[in-house]
Design a protein that fits this description.
This is Protein kinase domain-containing protein. One of its GO terms (cellular component) is cytoplasm. One of its GO terms (molecular function) is ATP binding. InterPro entries: Kinase-like_dom_sf, Prot_kinase_dom, Ser_Thr_protein_kinase. The chain is α+β, with helices and mostly antiparallel strands. The chain has three domains: 115 residues, no CATH class; 85 residues, 2-Layer Sandwich (Phosphorylase Kinase, domain 1), CATH 3.30.200; 162 residues, Orthogonal Bundle (Transferase(Phosphotransferase), domain 1). Strands 1-2-3-5-4 form a five-stranded antiparallel sheet, with helices on one face. Strands 6-7 form a two-stranded antiparallel ribbon. A two-stranded antiparallel sheet has the order 8-9. Strand 4 and strand 5 form a beta hairpin. The longest helix is centred in the first third of the chain and has 29 residues. It is globular and about 70 Å long.
């Protein structure tokens, strides 16, 4: 019976292949339109630059500019790039199903690159397509700009790369991206989504696109209106879920700090992305791994610099952040959770919180992310 079913399935797939062998013609048509629109956009940018340099544009300058804005090709370009992604999704589904030969039959369609990145890479995107505003207050380490993409406010993070670094960035972003997309069916993945990755065509930069959450970092939220005890539980539960997912995928974050944790609606926490050009060792020893007087670097890493960070190191950073949320004025130093069995410089902690911290801020035997989520501190709030 089983053999009969397999033969029937094979026959059906063969008939489908013979009667409806797909081609990427629709994809090629979209790509052609994108090339045309990109050419129009470049000419428009040259034209606008010439007009701005002119000393006297004329009395109808504002009305002419409004007319040009209405005819800008960016919106049509964005729609076509969205259509290009849909075509790639269709072809990828076919290649993963009845037509695995598609990437080999049509190498010029570059289906394999799309599939290998989990749909993250957009080769049609480029920096000059975006009408972006620099975010100078956040651009101390790398160029950050805020723009709009397909109706959503986003941030573009630029990383300087050479050919070797480009391959590493592609590998690391894909791994981070897949970790989240594989859990999209869950209501709260706890991981910041990566929307796109593309490489500059006229500059040596890799651009990572992420959603823009105004004042959404944990640091900004605490500076504006600190989370309540109940809100802190909900937010940090989401962060622990994100760490659990990353660790299950073999990823050590090594960059967990208040600027790299995001808060949505004061009850949803997410682990942010990190510098994809850096190794975990480089990320862990970054100067940003501190909050107030508290070092977020695990003791074992400080004692032996160059030691590769582990998931346990992420949980130490997590414990420090959890403590900081309830004691932002703390001016001491956290090296060992043994001190947390006592009152720390007048800081009063709720019993279940103190018990959890005593199992995170220790030199050995820290809880895992899964064990943290199962702790009474989180279970009592459910």
């Amino acid at each position: 019976m089983e053999k009969y079913l397999l033969n029937t399935k094979f026959k059906g797939e063969m008939l489908q292949w013979l009667n409806a062998s797909p081609t990427p013609d629709s994809l090629f048509s979209v790509k052609k339109r994108i090339r045309s629109l990109r050419s129009q956009l470049r000419w428009r940018q040259v034209e606008e630059a010439s007009l701005e340099e002119a000393e006297d544009i004329g009395p109808n300058r504002d009305s002419e500019r409004e007319g040009r804005d209405r005819m800008r090709p960016e919106h049509t370009l964005s729609r076509n790039i969205s259509q290009e992604r849909k075509e790639y999704m269709k072809l990828s589904a076919l290649a993963e199903g009845c037509f695995p030969e598609l990437p080999q039959l049509f190498p010029e369609a570059d289906i394999r690159s799309y599939m290998s990145s989990g749909g993250l890479v957009f080769k049609s995107l480029d920096r000059d397509m975006f009408d972006a505003e620099p975010m100078r207050e956040l651009s101390g380490r790398r160029p950050l700009v805020c723009t709009e993409f397909q109706g959503q406010r986003v941030i573009l993070k630029g990383y300087t790369v050479n050919e070797e670094a480009e391959a590493r960035v592609l590998e690391r972003t894909t791994q981070f991206h897949r970790t989240r997309t594989q859990r999209q069916s869950q209501p709260d993945t706890g991981i910041l989504p990566l929307l796109a990755l593309f490489f500059g065509k006229s500059d040596p930069l890799a651009y990572v696109m992420v959603p823009y959450f105004p004042n959404g970092s944990l640091w900004a939220v605490q500076a504006a209106k600190p989370l309540t005890a109940t809100e802190s539980v909900k937010v940090m539960r989401g962060v622990a879920r994100g760490l659990q997912a990353l660790h299950a995928a073999g990823i050590t974050h090594a960059s967990l700090n208040p600027n790299n944790v995001f808060v949505l609606h004061r009850h949803q926490g997410m682990v942010g992305d990190y510098d994809f050009t850096k190794t975990p060792v480089q990320r862990a020893m970054d100067s940003g791994m501190v909050t107030g007087s508290i070092s977020l670097v695990a003791p074992e890493l400080r004692q032996a610099q160059g030691t590769p960070p582990t998931p346990a190191c992420d949980l130490y950073s997590y414990g420090c952040l959890l403590f900081w949320l309830h004691a932002q004025g703390f001016n001491g130093d956290l090296d060992s959770g043994r001190r947390l069995a006592l009152d720390i410089s007048g800081v009063k902690l709720e019993a279940k919180l103190q018990a959890l911290l005593s199992k995170l801020l220790v030199c050995v035997g820290r809880l895992t992310a899964a064990e943290t989520l199962a702790d009474d501190y989180f279970l009592s709030d459910q």
